[in-house]
Amino acid sequence: MQVMDRNWVVVSQQPAAGELIAEGDAVLSVVKIGEPGDCS
Question: What is the pLDDT of residues 6-18, one digit of tens each?
Answer without folding.
Answer: 788 888 889 988 8
